[in-house]
Design goal:
It is a single chain. This protein is of the alpha/beta class and 422 residues long. It has 13 helices and eleven strands. A six-stranded parallel beta sheet has the order 1-7-8-9-10-11, with helices on one face. Helix 6 links the parallel strand 10 and strand 11. Helix 11 runs antiparallel to helix 12. The two termini are 20 Å apart.
């Protein structure tokens, strides 16, 4: 993959070294490493053991960093960009390692390595210095870290404003990043969860607000934990840098053009469908993390409020607008050109109809519980049979497009084995 990226003129971001070591290292004898420099970094998410951390700016850290970069180069080659997130979600205990000690120490180790790399190995970029890509997430790195790095590394310390479409700093305080560069990112999908969701209009507005405020914004990025959902969000995101900031179209104007580009038909019903979705599922008013999950995917319960740990099943939108959007899309079926828009149309129609059926399931399970509690056994039985049939109907609906079928993904996984001999 790295070879192909470089053939296309892309600059990969390689994993740099920020001090992580196995938890057992403190108990072993490693040449050049003192156990006194190894820090227990605790647990993550209520019990998962984190790797230990070697204190930066020590001989121990420099020893391991040298070994690490030597092997990284053998495996992945050399790049201009390296990613390191020492404090990500509480990774390095701030009471044991100072921010200045950590960030400057990590950068110094990268510089020591990069200074040994020949111009030839640095490839087409010929960069004089390596650049550090860091994720801004949950308040880290702190503003003081950017102040520190701005002193010597302002254009070499680049922040991914990871959740800029909802919680990002860029849209309301671009000064947070001091003189460092940052990238406006959309963290649309959490955990690979499926469902219609997004912040279409506010993503466009917030991007241009951040751009207007100045600072070091140097691009846009997509940072999803899962892909292949809500393609319109990504189409918008990657078009933003190409739009004229002095003549930004309204989101409604953009949607009219998008409807024609996506379906190959100039029809008001297609535009109306996208408008309704913009005002419902693609108009999330909060900073919830990802889509509201379908209750039919949850463990059986009378009080389903989520499917996975950090999620919700609550509906923030007007479900009737999703239903009306499905109706509008159905109405243009015969108008979509067979050679231009059928694949996009099929995907969108199935996704919107699926969402409307999932919305019904959310309401239906509450009504089933109500009838059960009220002792209305006949209506209870009718509704729960309807709920079970609804699950089968959704399964059949999704079978009509390969993008929603499990077999597409299992086949891709199996085909990978054919790429390697032996």
């Amino acid at each position: 993959m790295l070879e192909r990226m470089r053939e296309l003129g892309m600059k990969p971001v390689l994993p740099g070294y920020c001090g992580m070591v196995p938890n057992s290292m403190a108990e072993k004898s490693v040449k050049g490493v003192s156990s006194a420099d190894i820090i227990d970094s605790g647990t993550w998410a209520g019990g998962y053991t984190r790797p230990d951390i070697i204190r930066p700016r020590t001989d121990s850290f420099n020893t391991i960093a040298e070994i690490y970069y030597e092997h990284l180069e053998k495996l992945m080659g050399v790049s201009e960009f390296y990613s390191m997130d020492p404090f990500h979600e509480g990774g390095v205990p701030v009471d044991k390692v100072s921010i200045e000690e950590c960030y400057k120490g990590v950068m110094e180790a990268l510089d020591v390595y990069y200074s040994t790399v020949s111009k030839k190995k640095r490839g087409h970029s010929g960069a004089d210095d390596a650049k550090w890509i860091v994720q801004y997430w949950q308040g880290l790195p702190a503003a003081s870290a950017f102040d520190i790095m701005d002193d010597s590394y302002s254009h070499r310390f680049i922040a991914l404003d990871l959740f800029a479409d909802a919680q990002g700093k860029a849209k309301w305080n671009s000064d947070y990043f001091a003189g460092c560069d940052y990238i406006f990112c959309m963290l649309h999908n959490f955990g690979g969860r499926s469902g219609m969701h997004g912040r279409l209009e506010s993503t466009m507005n917030d991007y241009f607000k951040a751009l207007e405020r100045g600072g070091g914004m140097c691009g846009v990025g997509a940072t999803p934990e899962g892909i292949e959902t809500n393609p319109i969000l990504y189409d918008l995101l990657f078009e933003l840098p190409w739009l004229d900031p002095d003549n930004v179209p309204s989101i409604d104007t953009w949607l009219r053009d998008y409807a024609y580009a996506r379906y190959g038909v100039d029809d008001s019903a297609a535009v109306e469908a996208l408008m309704m979705l913009k005002e419902s599922v693609w108009g999330c008013p909060t900073d919830q993390q990802g889509t509201s999950e379908a209750v039919i995917l949850a463990r059986p319960s009378w009080s389903v409020d989520r499917v996975s740990s950090w999620s919700t099943s609550n509906i923030y939108w007007d479900t009737q607008k999703v239903l009306a959007a499905a109706d509008r899309l159905i109405s243009i079926k015969e108008k979509v050109p067979a050679t231009d828009g059928t694949a996009n149309y099929s995907y969108d129609l199935i996704d919107v109809v699926r969402q409307s059926l999932v919305d019904l399931a959310y309401t239906l399970i509450k009504e089933i519980k109500h009838k059960r509690d009220a002792g209305d056994s006949a209506e209870y039985e009718r509704l729960y049979r309807l709920y079970l049939q609804l699950m089968l109907d959704i399964d059949e609906l999704l079978s009509y497009d390969e993008n929603f079928r499990l077999e597409k993904w299992t086949k891709m996984a199996r085909d990978i084995t054919d790429e390697v001999s032996g």
